[in-house]
């Protein structure tokens, strides 16, 4: 009896809401219902799209995800949201467990990790346990059925042997995994850190880093979708479209879509049992494009769900509610971007597919420029890992090399975060950070502070409650400019008062707005908006008079800042970094900019700039006469300082060292080499010189004639059956189309690295893809490519065949039957060839074939 009474008492004071989701289906929810009632608790099961019950009545909410309508309200009212495991642990211990360890908040990225430690140093153990528990995980002193990860250095420890002998589903990982996760603030894949064969200790530097799909950005890679969504018909969504059940949706006029598309979107909403409305007071969801305008601010202050078309289409596609704050590009963008980002030129490296598209669109949303190629006038390189030619070049040019977390978190915090933060410059050794793209959420507090401050909501509420004709009249009479909001980045005083913001509309001409708003920056401006009290008629009460007096005082205080903003707008080049001066301590300077040596007034700064420019003209380097790739130069091996000094000296002579074969006009090497640099550059027919040319130019500190240092290597030419002179002539004629139309695949673990062979194929106009058991063919593109090249010297007899570059290692051989099968299905001829086939073609610049290139058929493989 005592056990029964204690079990009843466990949840006697609890009323729990169970939120159904993809991971908590109806059956699982019913099991939780029975367990809660058996232990004396009350329970309510919520299933979307029904209205969420009043949240104040609950003591706990059980959900496997933070992505449900009332999550933010639960956080605001301090009602704990926990995963189902919280209930199981509480029942097992007969004591309510700490809800923090079971939070579904994505920030607690170790929330489903239960870790135990093997034979590792005590200091490392304490650090790992502390980090895991801080990020929502749990620690167990021994191996139990609940443990998910064992931290160890080898498979020889006692705990590792227990895990192996009992066949427990525990991942045995190196401590490095926790270290990298905590440095990034994200949970990355354990695969490269998993014993007994951890990739981070075994893989060579040239082995390509594998990438995996990313579900966080599916349907969220652009804020402006171009096609209507198709509702999901998967078994998980057997019901008809019901995501808008009983909800009123308002579409903003700033979406800028045509009548036909607008009608189609409204039909989709009605198919989801939603109601299209033009009355913001009735709307549950407000769909707009930009974070400005009267309707946006009012809907946000009234806690409507505010999102963009991309978010709306995501709801239709998945028929499941998700917060518009969950993904950065599901929320309306700002017209001008983040202060300080305008003028930045950002390039991407090592991101692919939808992750790359997402980051390109996010860069544009910040106000910066996304460049397809990396040049020395770029300011930042965002890369998923540190192994690429772009990364090498960016470091040589002194650019900021960072991961995408800097971009995402700057956007979420709406300010330029410092690139020196260690999390933004950390690249785990064998991880492609494209796997964790899209996990950053928007912060509602930041949005409120920057775009709809709460203290201005009272006046807009009054206006909304007036008749429609009065609202329209006021909107027409009170034309103001969103640039007032931009002035906040300059102003350090109080924000623009409520009534000023309330009369702003996004559909007003700039000239008239500017004349009315900034025509006078002192007392007349106060009376224009507030003193007369004739623009917006409100009941004449003591509180309203007091509000006007307070607002008048605020606008008077803001007048000097507005005048300063006007002055900045007249400067040549406009407002720098949102109106901040270059001496602003919060300003993050672009790459290679020297710090000011003084903080003089602006007139003196401009005078100093002119003097500095004059000095630079005197020290101007010689114009670039050649772009050179250097390979095999032993003088620089292991001496980075010497290399940097020599490259600066060469640049002063007019020789720019480049890594980009497309820009290459000259190639320097000690002999004919099979390095990627040499082979790629050869496709562009550069002048080829001996590296002695570099040595002599540096020694004499003058630009010598490269014709006197032509590369001669008769032995290698005879061995490979071609001459450099003939190869260069053919490269001129081929114009990088030698392999155009050729379909070439490559195994993932090829010696030398897939990226190296891909770059060689692409430099010669071909297409190279990674073979992982699947061949993707595009006949239309292939045949067009085949018909484009009319080179009489090129043999196209094998152009319709498909080639696989492979080695003869067992791991490669087992892929051959699958490759042949798939190519035969496309009615093509497969060839499995060694790397010599590609290298001989690229170096001789002509199509060659020898039977020795192709591996013999192994039916028993």
TrEMBL record:
InterPro entries per UniProt: BRCT_dom, BRCT_dom_sf, CellCycle_DNARepair_Reg
Bias (Low complexity): 490-499
Region (Disordered): 472-553, 576-619
Gene3D superfamilies: BRCT domain (3.40.50.10190)
GO biological process: DNA double-strand break attachment to nuclear envelope; double-strand break repair
Limits of the BRCT domain: 6-104, 104-195, 341-424, 647-711
Acidic residues bias: start-end ranges: 602-611
Superkingdom per UniProt: Eukaryota
SUPFAM superfamilies in the cross-refs: BRCT domain
Biased composition (Basic and acidic residues): 478-488
GO CC terms of this entry: Cul8-RING ubiquitin ligase complex; nucleus
Name of this chain's protein: BRCT domain-containing protein
């Amino acid at each position: 009896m005592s056990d029964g009474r204690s079990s009843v008492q466990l949840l006697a004071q609890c009323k729990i809401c169970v939120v159904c989701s993809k991971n908590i289906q109806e059956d699982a929810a019913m099991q939780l219902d029975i367990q809660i009632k058996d232990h004396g608790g009350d329970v309510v099961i919520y299933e979307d799209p029904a209205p969420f019950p009043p949240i104040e009545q609950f003591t706990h909410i059980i959900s496997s995800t933070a992505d449900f309508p009332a999550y933010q309200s639960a956080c605001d009212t301090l009602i704990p949201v926990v995963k189902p495991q919280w209930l199981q642990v509480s029942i097992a211990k007969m004591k309510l467990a700490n809800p923090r360890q079971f939070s579904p908040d994505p920030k607690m990225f170790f929330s489903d990790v239960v870790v135990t430690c093997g034979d590792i140093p005590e200091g490392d153990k304490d650090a790992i346990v502390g980090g895991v528990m801080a990020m929502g995980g749990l620690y167990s002193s021994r191996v139990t059925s609940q443990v998910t990860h064992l931290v160890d250095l080898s498979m020889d420890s006692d705990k590792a042997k227990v895990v192996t002998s009992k066949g427990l589903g525990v991942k045995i990982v190196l401590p490095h995994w926790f270290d990298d996760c905590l440095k990034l603030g994200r949970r990355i894949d354990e695969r490269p850190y998993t014993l007994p064969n951890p990739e981070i200790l075994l893989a060579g530097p040239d082995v390509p880093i594998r990438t995996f799909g990313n579900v966080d950005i599916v349907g969220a890679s652009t804020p402006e979708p171009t096609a209507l969504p198709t509702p999901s018909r998967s078994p998980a969504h057997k019901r008809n479209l019901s995501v808008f059940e009983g909800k009123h949706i308002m579409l903003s006029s700033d979406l800028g879509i045509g009548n036909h598309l607008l009608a189609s979107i409204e039909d989709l909403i009605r198919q989801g049992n939603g109601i299209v409305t033009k009355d913001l007071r009735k709307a549950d969801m407000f769909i707009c494009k930009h974070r400005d305008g009267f309707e946006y601010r009012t809907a946000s202050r009234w806690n409507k769900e505010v999102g963009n078309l991309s978010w709306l289409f995501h709801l239709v596609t998945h028929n499941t509610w998700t917060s518009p704050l969950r993904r950065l590009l599901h929320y309306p963008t700002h017209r001008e971007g983040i202060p300080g980002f305008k003028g930045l030129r950002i390039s991407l490296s090592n991101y692919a597919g939808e992750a790359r598209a997402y980051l390109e669109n996010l860069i544009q949303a910040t106000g910066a420029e996304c460049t397809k190629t990396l040049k020395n006038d770029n300011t930042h390189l965002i890369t998923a890992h540190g192994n690429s030619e772009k990364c090498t070049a960016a470091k040589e040019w002194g650019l900021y090399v960072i991961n995408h977390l800097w971009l995402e978190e700057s956007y979420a915090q709406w300010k330029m975060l410092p690139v020196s933060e260690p999390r933004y410059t950390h690249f785990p050794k064998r991880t492609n950070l494209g796997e964790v793209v899209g996990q950053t959420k928007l912060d509602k507090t930041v949005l409120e502070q920057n775009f709809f401050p709460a203290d201005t909501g009272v006046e807009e509420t009054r206006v909304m409650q007036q008749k429609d004709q009065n609202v329209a009249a006021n909107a027409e009479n009170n034309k103001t400019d969103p640039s007032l909001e931009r002035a906040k980045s300059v102003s350090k005083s109080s924000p623009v008062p409520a009534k000023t913001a309330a009369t702003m509309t996004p559909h007003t001409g700039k000239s008239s707005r500017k004349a009315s708003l900034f025509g006078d920056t002192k007392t007349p401006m106060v009376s224009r908006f507030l003193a007369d009290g004739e623009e917006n008629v409100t009941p004449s009460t003591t509180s309203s008079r007091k509000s006007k007096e307070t607002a008048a005082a605020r606008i008077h205080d803001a007048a000097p800042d507005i005048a300063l903003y006007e002055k900045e707008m007249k400067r040549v080049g406009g407002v720098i970094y949102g109106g901040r001066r270059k001496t602003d301590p919060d300003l993050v300077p672009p790459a290679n900019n020297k710090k000011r040596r003084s903080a003089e007034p602006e007139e003196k700064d401009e005078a100093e700039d002119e003097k500095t420019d004059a000095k630079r003209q005197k020290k101007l380097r010689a114009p670039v006469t050649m772009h050179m790739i250097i390979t095999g130069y032993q003088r620089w091996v292991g001496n980075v300082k010497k290399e940097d000094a020599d490259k600066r000296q060469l640049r002063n002579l007019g020789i720019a060292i480049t890594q980009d074969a497309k820009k290459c006009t000259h190639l320097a090497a000690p002999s004919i080499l099979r390095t990627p640099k040499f082979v790629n550059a050869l496709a562009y027919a550069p002048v080829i010189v001996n590296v002695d040319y570099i040595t002599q130019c540096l020694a004499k500190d003058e630009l010598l004639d490269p014709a006197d240092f032509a590369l001669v290597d008769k032995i290698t030419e005879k061995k490979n059956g071609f001459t450099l002179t003939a190869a260069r002539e053919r490269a001129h004629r081929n114009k990088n189309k030698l392999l155009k139309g050729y379909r070439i695949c490559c195994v993932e673990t090829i010696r030398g690295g897939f990226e190296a062979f891909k770059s060689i194929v692409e430099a010669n106009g071909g297409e190279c893809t990674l073979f992982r058991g699947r061949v993707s063919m595009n006949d239309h593109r292939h045949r067009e490519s085949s018909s484009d090249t009319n080179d009489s010297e090129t043999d196209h007899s094998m152009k319709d065949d498909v080639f696989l570059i492979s080695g003869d290692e067992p791991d490669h051989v087992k892929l051959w039957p699958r490759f042949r099968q798939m190519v035969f299905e496309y009615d093509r001829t497969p060839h499995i060839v060694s790397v010599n086939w590609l290298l001989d073609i690229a170096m001789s610049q002509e199509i060659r074939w020898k039977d020795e290139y192709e591996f013999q058929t192994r039916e028993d493989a």
